[in-house]
Amino acid sequence: MIIRVKEAGERVSTTDKSRTLRLVLAGTFALAAVAVFLWWWLTSTQNYKLQLPATEQAKLTATVLPIVESKLADTDSGERLACAIKILGTEPADARTADTVTTAYVQTLCATLDTAVRTESQQPAVVRLGTPAQVEVPGAAFYKERVQKLFPKRMQDAAFDAHNINQDAELEMRVKELAKPGKR
């Protein structure tokens, strides 16, 4: 391949103009694609930031934790659960106090108590506060579709990523707390 530099005043062929135009268009398209990807990534990963201050999160956790433990336990068999939860989000999304929360989106890690073999399960859950309180979990069948149905769009990434949350220490503390005499 021979590369020749054009002399001053020499005319540029239409082939050279066409090639330059194609390169400019391809570069513009590539930059636009990168910009769209960055916008999507930044907005999708920031939609689920919890608005509750830490003290209000603690109050909400204290309210939601016993509800999760009682509703997820198999009460017919007398099973008891100890759970650790992490609040992922709330309804209303901009709630600033625990008292204004109507629904809590949580990550649960639960262990059976008083059984020969301890089993544990970790899953996202929707806790609807009210009378009576309700807890819904996606379950194993059709997991993706159930998460999409139970969790609002802004919370779905958090629900799918929740399995990465390490709650082992909190669960062990809760197991010890519930194992104390008189804690049933």
3D architecture notes:
This protein has helices at residues 14-46, 54-72, 143-150, 153-161, 168-179; strands at residues 80-91, 103-113, 120-128, 134-136. It is elongated and about 95 Å long. The protein folds into 2 domains: 11-46; 54-179, no CATH class. The chain has a 4-stranded antiparallel sheet. It is built from 5 helices and 4 strands. β3 (120-128) and β4 (134-136) form a beta hairpin. With 184 residues, it is an alpha+beta fold. The protein is 44% helix and 19% strand.
Give the arrangement of secondary structure elements.
Blueprint: H1 14-46, H2 54-72, E1 80-91, E2 103-113, E3 120-128, E4 134-136, H3 143-150, H4 153-161, H5 168-179
Antiparallel strand pairs: 1-2, 2-3, 3-4
